[in-house]
Design a protein that fits this description.
Elements: E1 11-16, E2 19-25, E3 29-34, E4 39-45, E5 73-74, E6 103-110, E7 115-121, E8 133-141, E9 145-153, H1 159-167, E10 170-176, E11 179-181, E12 189-191, E13 196-199, E14 205-208, E15 213-214, E16 219-224, E17 233-237, E18 241-247, E19 251-256, H2 258-263, E20 276-289, E21 294-301
Antiparallel strand pairs: 1-2, 2-3, 3-4, 5-10, 6-7, 7-8, 8-9, 9-21, 10-20, 11-20, 12-15, 12-17, 13-14, 13-16, 16-19, 17-18, 18-21, 19-20
Bound molecules: 6-O-phosphono-beta-D-tagatofuranose (TA6).
6-O-phosphono-beta-D-tagatofuranose (TA6) binds near residues 79, 200 and 280.
Amino acid sequence: MILDLTRLNSVSESQFGELPVLEINNASCSGTISLFGGHILSFKPKHDQRERLWLSDTAITDKSKPIRGGIPICWPWFANIFPSVQTPNEQLPAHGFVRTQDWLLVDATENDSSTRLVLQPKKLGLYAFSASLRVCLEVTFGAELTVKLITTYDKNEDVQAKVASAQAPLAITMALHSYLAVSDINKCELVGVEADYIDKLANDSITTTPSPYIFDQEVDRIHMSTQSAPLHTVSVNDAKTTTLKQQGHDALVVWNPWIDKSSGMADMQHDGYKSMLCVEAAVVNPITLNYGEKHELIQTIS
Ligand code: TA6
C-alpha cells in the first residue's frame, strides 16, 4: 500500500487469513478488498444488509493460489489461452497472472455515500506478456458495487519498448469472475440470458440456453453477447434478486462446479456449490489494442 489511509474515514486495514485487506464501511455499504489479487471479497449494501458475494469458508490465504470466491480478476487472459495464440496451454496459469499478484492502492476518494479505490498490480510483463499493457482496477463501493477493469496501452517510459509497442497491436482477454452468493442454487433462476452458449463441458458445442434458466447440474458456459441477444443486464432471482450490469464485454460466463467438482476442490466445502453462482463479465474473443488505446470492462452489482 502506498497511500496514507488515515485521511479516509471509510477505509481501514485488516487481514483475511494471512492476506492484507481493506475494509470499507460508509453510509451505503460495507465491503472488503484484498491487496492480493486486487480481489473484492465482500459487498453488503446497508439498505438490506444482504451479502452479494460468495466467499469460500476454506479459501486458501497463503498466496499459493487465487482466493476462492469474491471477484477474481482474470487478466491478461481468460482460461489458459494466451490471447495472441488462441491455443490452450496447460503451462499457463488459468485466468492470467494478476489474481496471484500483490496489488498497490494508488488512489482513494470518498464522499458521504461512496468510497472509490484504485489499485494496480505490482508486477506486469510476466509469462512473456507485454509489460506495455497496464491494468488498473477502479472499484466504487456505494449503494451498488461498480468494478472497472481498465487496460491502457501507453506510458511506457522505456523508449525502445515504446517504439516497438507503437508498431505492435496487442491482443488481450479478461473477466471479472464474480462469485454471487445465493441462498439455494436449486431454487435459483438466471434472467436476461437468451440464445445459445458454448458448452465447456461438451467440447465447446453450441447449445440452446434453457428457459427458464435454472440449475440442477454442473454448468460451465460461455454466453456470447450479440445484437439479437444482448447481455447488458441480467439478474439472479433467488429468495431475493441480485442485478448485474455489464459494459465492455463480449460474453457472460456462467459457472457452478456442482457436487463432484466442489467435493474435489481443497478450497471449497463439499456443499459449497449450493450457495454460489459465478456470473462473469468477460472478454473471450481477443480484443486488440493499438498504442494509446484503452479498454474498460465494467460490472455493476446491486
Ligand atoms: O470461468 C469458468 C472457469 O473457467 C471454469 O472452467 C472453472 O474452472 C472456473 O473458472 C474456476 O477456475 P479456477 O482457476 O479459479 O479454479
